[in-house]
Structures are given as C-alpha cells and as structure tokens.
Write a structure and sequence with these properties.
Elements (H helix, E strand, L loop, with lengths): L2 E7 L16 E2 L2 E2 H12 L5 E4 L3 H8 L4 E4 L6 H6 L2 H4 L5 E6 L7 H13 L4 E7 L8 E4 L5 E5 L6 H4 L3 E10 H8 L14 H8 L4 E6 L11 H21 L3 E2 L5 E3 L4 E2 L4 E2 L3 E4 L3 E2 L4 E2 L3 E4 L2 E2 L4 E2 L3 E3 L2 E2 L4 E2 L4 E2 L3 E3 L4 E9 L1 E3 L4 E9 L1 E3 L4 E2 L4 E3 L9 E3 L4 E2 L4 E3 L2 E3 L4 E2 L4 E2 L7 E5 L2 E6 L3
Parallel strand pairs: 1-4, 1-6, 4-5, 7-11, 12-15, 13-16, 14-17, 15-18, 16-19, 17-20, 18-21, 19-22, 20-23, 21-24, 22-25, 23-26, 24-27, 25-27, 26-28, 27-29, 28-30, 29-31, 30-33, 31-34, 32-35, 33-36, 34-37, 35-38, 37-39
Antiparallel strand pairs: 2-3, 6-10, 7-10, 8-9, 39-40
This protein binds uridine-diphosphate-N-acetylglucosamine (UD1) and calcium ion (CA).
Length: 448
C-alpha cells in the first residue's frame, strides 16, 4: 500500500517575529521542518510533498531535494493547503499522511501507529489527539455517547461547552487518498474565510463513515511552535529525547540539562559527558572518553579513551588516547594521532601531529606536520603567514623545540633536532642538530 506524506509549511509564523521563515528555525541544530521530514521518512520511502508559501525560496534552498515542493500562493487554510498537492498525488498514492512542519517532536512511530489504525479502518481517516489541561488554542475533539469522533471544532468557533473539552486535535491525519481529494472540494468556507482541513471529520461523519483517533500520551510530542517560547519548549523536549537516547545506549551524562547534543552526533559506550558540553554537527566520539565540562565540539571525529577538558574543537580528528585541555583549541584540519597530549592554551589548525606528540603550553601550530614523539615547548609559534600566503612547517620525529621558539615557515626541521629557548628559526635545521639564537644559527652537530 502506497503512503505519501504531505507536510504543511506555508504559514508565515507571524508570532515568531523573525525574518527567517518559521519552519527554518532550528531545533537541536536542525530546521524544524527537517524533523518533520525525518518522522515522515520512518513510514514512507516516497519523497514527501511539502506545501510552501511564506519564504518559499528559503525553504527550498534549505531542504533541497528531500521534498517535492508545491507552492500555496494564497494562504486559505489547512484544507486549501492540502488541496494544492492533489494534482501531484492524485492516483499515485493509497494513503496520505498530513502533518505540520511546526511540530518537530511528532515521532515516526506515532505516524506508523496512525497508519496501522487507518489500514484497519473501514472509514476514510484517522486523526491524532491528546488529552491536556492547557488547550493551547488547539481544535477540540467532539465525541458522541459511544465515544466515536464526531467533529473537530476550532477554538474560534467553539461554544463554551466545546471549549471545556480537554481532548485536542494535534494536527496530524492519515487519509484514504481518493476520499480526501473528493472531500477537500466540499469543505465549507469557515467564518474566518479559511478552508479548514479539520472539517473533513464532519464530512466523513455526515456520510456515516468512521473517523478513528489515536490518542497520544506524551504532551511533549504535541508541542507545536508558534512563538519563540514554544521554540524553547521544543528545544528542551528534543534535547531531553536525544539525551535519553544516548543514556539508554550506555553513555553517562552527568547533567543532561546542561548537555547539548546535536541530532547527528554518535557516541561510543561508557563515554562520560560532563556538564555544559555542546556536541554539534557531524561529530563522532568513540567509547570510553571523558568529555567536558565546558567543552564545545563541532564536526569532529574522536577516537576511544580521549579526555577533553574545557576546550573548543572544530572540524578536527583525534585518534585514540588523546588528552587535551583545559583551554585547548582545535580548528579545521587539525589531526592528532594516537596518544597526543595537548595542554592549556594551544591552538592547532591544518596540521598533522604524529603519535605521542606533546604540545604542553601556549602554542600555535598552523600548516604543520609534526613527527612522532616530538615535544613542542611552551610558547612555540609556527609563523605560517607572511601577510599574503600560508607556508608549511615540517618537523621531524623526536624533535625537541625549546620554549618560546618562533618557527618562520616555510621550514623543514630534521629528526631529533633541538632548538634552544627563544630561538627564531628562519632556516631549515638538519637532523640531530641543535640551533640557538635569533635568527637561530647552527652551533654544533649533536651526533655524527
Ligand atoms: C491547526 C488545526 C487545529 C489543531 C492545530 C494543532 C486547522 C483548521 N486547525 O490549527 O485543529 O489543533 O493545528 O497545531 O487545521 N498552513 C498552510 N497553509 C495555510 C494555513 C496553514 O500551509 O493556508 C500550515 C501552517 O504553516 C502550519 C499548519 O498548516 O504548519 C497548521 O496551520 P496553523 O495556522 O498553525 O493552524 P492552527 O491554527 O494551529
Ligand atoms: Ca499551529
């Protein structure tokens, strides 16, 4: 049975007070609408149809070919919005799942359950409801004496008795496709001048057809975003869901409330995440690491048993058993091999550090290759930029760079060479050679 998802994303979201279309505001680092697409993907391999309008070009650009787009030129209501997909989908799908781009916490598993109910339903639709004390302006679910769904009444049209109903319309629906297209054409114009998708319930009931309902028990799933306050609630709800997922996979979060983990992050078992830590983007962390507190890691790949304290890492790769911090900074292209030690106030960019390299204190390493077991003394700077171009520094294995050495690139330093404290190195250093001074000159051969 073919299932296609329609995601409503044309609304303006006036209450967000933003230049960014509402559905592009991020929740845990991903646009709201990305979450809606993920949930749809759980139940169908068909590309979802997204109804766009406000900020259409921006939405298209952000989401790319993950959706087919249909533009709703005039926002005439949710029923009208769904109708825009008719010419694209008619005859091509058996069931239609309708959801909103501004409900990022709705789970694919919930959609799957709705679809299961609809497949058993001899009537044309299944809706999603929740029982809650705070109605949040949602439509009310009217049921008859037998408990069957009779109508959804929008708050603006509800009588006082209807307003008191605590069962609410979450705003996700599973329809028999052919019935839906025919019903959309019959939706009456509401007093507000809109065509409400919710009126399809009344149309089904009038025709003696059964409307089924799935009732959610987790209010968090039904968080819809109309304002920045709702956005923060959704962020907290999604963060908690993501964090619980990691904990259930064997990762310790000392303080989940101050741990921010992006949707694409992977973490190995027995890793401990200390408070106030941000793991973002395409980050993968191996098993048995200790991360944080006070650490921000973005788009990094980190091996096993690494310890990272109060540091900021971006687009870097760490092999196993690296320890760093406090106050280390890795920028793009930093590659730290197994067992590298990086102490406080070091910065590494576009550089490859071999196994066991030590950069203990106050250093800048840029555009540099460092061989295994080399020690970089406190205050060492690779002077890689001459104001116009970046130059490469190559440092061999088991080299000892003395404290406060300036390495003026381009430069090649041979294996086991040493520099004296305060050296300014402007010329290549041969292997097994000690240099001192400013600019540093060779004074003796260490070994024949
Ligand atoms: C809708 C439901 C309400 C439900 C609530 C849950 C209707 C009439 N009411 O109300 O019963 O409790 O959602 O959140 O459906 N949209 C379009 N084009 C339009 C109008 C809306 O694409 O012409 C999109 C919006 O961008 C949004 C979604 O449809 O993603 C829902 O529209 P919205 O105006 O937020 O409906 P609600 O008043 O919240
Ligand atoms: Ca809404």
């Amino acid at each position: 049975m073919k299932i296609t998802s329609i995601i409503l994303a044309a609304g303006q979201g006036t209450r967000m007070k933003s230049d960014l279309p509402k559905v592009l505001h991020p929740v845990c680092g991903k646009p709201m609408v990305w979450h809606a697409l993920q949930a749809a993907r759980v139940v169908t391999e068909e590309t979802p149809v997204m109804i766009i309008g406000h900020g259409a070009d921006q939405v298209r650009e952000a989401i790319g070919d993950a959706a087919h787009y249909v533009v709703q030129a005039e926002r005439l209501g949710t029923g009208h919005a769904v109708q825009q997909a008719e010419s694209t989908l008619k005859g091509g799908t058996d069931l239609v799942l309708v959801s909103s781009a501004d409900m990022p916490l709705l789970r694919g598993e919930t959609f799957a359950e709705m679809i299961r109910l609809q497949k058993e339903n001899d009537g044309p639709m299944t809706i999603l409801t929740i029982v809650a004390d705070d109605p949040r302006g949602f439509g009310r679910i009217v049921r008859d004496e037998d408990g069957d769904v009779k109508a959804i009444v929008e708050e603006a049209q509800a009588t006082d008795a209807e307003k008191a109903i605590r069962e609410l319309n979450v705003g996700a629906y599973c329809f028999d496709a052919e019935w839906l297209w025919e019903a959309l054409a019959r939706i009456p114009l509401s007093p507000k001048g809109e065509y409400y998708l919710t009126d399809t319930v009344g149309l089904a009931v009038e025709a003696g057809l059964r409307v089924k309902a799935l009732t959610l028990d987790d209010m968090v799933e039904a968080i819809g975003i109309n304002s920045r306050i709702h956005l923060s609630e959704a962020e907290a709800g999604m963060r908690s869901r993501v964090n619980r997922g990691h904990m259930s996979r064997g990762i310790t979060l000392i303080d989940p409330a101050s741990t921010y983990i992006g949707m694409d992050v992977e973490i190995g078992q027995d890793t401990v995440i200390q408070p106030n830590t941000f793991l973002r983007g395409e980050t993968i962390i191996g098993a048995g690491c200790e991360i944080g507190p006070n650490t921000i890691i973005t788009d990094c790949k980190i091996g096993e048993r690494c310890e990272i304290l109060s540091s900021v890492l971006e687009k870097a790769v760490l092999e196993d058993d690296v320890d760093m911090g406090p106050f280390a900074r890795l920028r793009k292209g930093a590659y730290l091999s197994k067992g590298v030690h990086m102490g406080n106030f070091g910065e590494v960019k576009d550089s490859h550090l071999g196994e066991g390299v030590k950069v203990g204190h106050f250093s800048y390493i840029g555009n540099t290759t460092i061989g295994a077991e080399t020690n970089i003394g406190a205050g060492t700077i690779t002077c890689n930029y001459d104001g116009k171009n970046k130059h490469h520094t190559e440092i061999g294995e088991a080299v000892f760079i003395g404290s406060d050495t300036m390495l003026v690139a381009p430069l090649v330093i041979g294996d086991r060479a040493r520099t004296g404290a305060g050296s300014v190195v402007t010329k290549n250093i041969k292997e097994d050679t000690l240099v001192v001074g400013m600019p540093a000159r060779a004074i003796r051969k260490l070994k024949e």
